[in-house]
Task: inverse folding
């Protein structure tokens, strides 16, 4: 058993830590499973199948670890790369074959064919259209010093609709499309191995299905995909992030409980929406299944399950949140100044925010601190309180998404402050 499979056992037993929530913390290494397959642990992962016609990559990893993956695979085999499969078009899944492509050119061989869902090219088009926006998201989400996002993409040579069977050198890979984290998601079934490769439909964390800075995601369809995987009775699960899960019982439990989490959030949200609740009422009315969120593979360390509620609202209810004042609102700064006048000044609002923070009402503290700062953004008191409140809020959160946004808000007014 190598380092990756040792991590898999520790992870199942609850000793996962933060290995899969940041590219700087992931375990990077190749685990050779047998003479016909290897698993690359990286940001993101890849399953490499050795066939008589060459290598098949199920997922292709990212530019973060492209060199490490190339070196590790080439230490294992010199077989050419025949096919690369994108499980979806997120940039941490589509840039890992660069060095293999360059090698093919140098050796006068065709580059690997790339297979992806038919919606993937439109995703790449959108990324080029919103390159700056996505760069700013990355800077906030991962604490990069400046915006970073690629502009050039390797578009697929062949696309998949609802499903497709690929045969390469005596090896069969069955691909299935299901919307979940993305609209272009596909997952793979390798029947000879009784193995599934989930892509980001499983990441050793609560599903990344709310992410407040990203495009629409699909919680109910995600749960359906997990149930479809479980119905195949797989004995091995290879995820998009984090270590493998080995053993039919473990795989079944991980898949079914992940689906259950999404199902209960979806059912509660839709029930409240159908009763006419506002978004605010829905967000505060959904009861999260804490017993599931304590599972080692469902901890809310990357996304926040309450963000899934908002994504469901966006999917089924649009952007109007039920508060008529928000339909055509005033400028935030104008509202903040009016409230500051009513409160006796921006500093009074800031002091009330400090009190709320001390009392542990961090949601209220953030609202008041934000209004105080918007009313007088150059005032030292409002700036220091804003930074204090958001740093405190970040410490209280478990998900990377929430932590990163709150820490970024603190850095807006205290650029040299360390993240929590």
Result:
């Amino acid at each position: 058993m190598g380092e990756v499979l040792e991590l898999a056992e520790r992870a199942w037993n609850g000793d996962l830590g933060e290995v899969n929530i940041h590219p700087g913390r992931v375990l990077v290494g190749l685990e050779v499973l047998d003479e016909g397959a290897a698993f690359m642990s990286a940001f993101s992962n890849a399953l490499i199948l050795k066939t008589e016609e060459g290598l098949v990559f199920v997922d292709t990893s990212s530019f973060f670890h492209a060199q490490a993956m190339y070196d590790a695979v080439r230490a294992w085999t010199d077989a050419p790369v025949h096919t690369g499969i994108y499980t979806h078009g997120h940039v941490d899944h589509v840039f890992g074959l660069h060095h293999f492509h360059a090698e093919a050119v140098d050796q006068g061989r065709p580059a690997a064919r790339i297979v992806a869902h038919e919606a993937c090219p439109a995703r790449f088009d959108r990324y080029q259209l919103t390159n700056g926006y996505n760069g700013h998201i990355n800077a906030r989400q991962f604490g990069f010093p400046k915006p970073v996002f690629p502009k050039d993409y390797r578009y697929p040579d062949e696309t998949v609709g609802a499903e497709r069977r690929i045969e390469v050198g005596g090896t069969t890979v069955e691909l299935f499309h299901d919307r979940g984290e993305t609209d272009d998601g596909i997952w793979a079934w390798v029947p000879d191995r009784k193995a599934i490769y989930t892509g980001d439909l499983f990441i050793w964390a609560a599903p990344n299905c709310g992410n407040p800075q990203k495009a629409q995601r699909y919680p109910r369809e995600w749960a359906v995909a997990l149930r479809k995987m479980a119905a195949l009775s797989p004995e091995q699960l290879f995820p998009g992030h984090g270590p493998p899960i080995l053993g039919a019982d473990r795989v079944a439990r991980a898949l079914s409980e992940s689906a259950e989490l999404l199902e209960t959030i979806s059912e509660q949200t839709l029930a409240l929406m159908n009763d006419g609740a506002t978004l605010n009422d829905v967000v505060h009315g959904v009861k999260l299944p804490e017993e599931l969120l304590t599972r080692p593979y469902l901890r809310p360390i990357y996304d926040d399950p309450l963000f899934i509620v908002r994504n469901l609202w966006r999917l089924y209810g649009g952007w109007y949140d039920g508060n008529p004042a928000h339909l055509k609102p005033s400028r935030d700064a104008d509202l903040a100044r009016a409230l500051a006048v009513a409160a006796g000044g921006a500093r009074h609002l800031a002091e009330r925010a400090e009190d709320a923070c001390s009392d542990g009402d961090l949601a209220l503290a953030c609202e008041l601190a934000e209004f105080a700062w918007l009313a007088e953004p150059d005032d030292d008191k409002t700036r220091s309180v804003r930074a204090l409140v958001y740093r405190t809020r970040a410490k209280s959160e478990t998900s990377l998404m929430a932590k990163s946004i709150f820490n970024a808000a603190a850095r807006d007014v205290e650029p040299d402050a360390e993240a929590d």
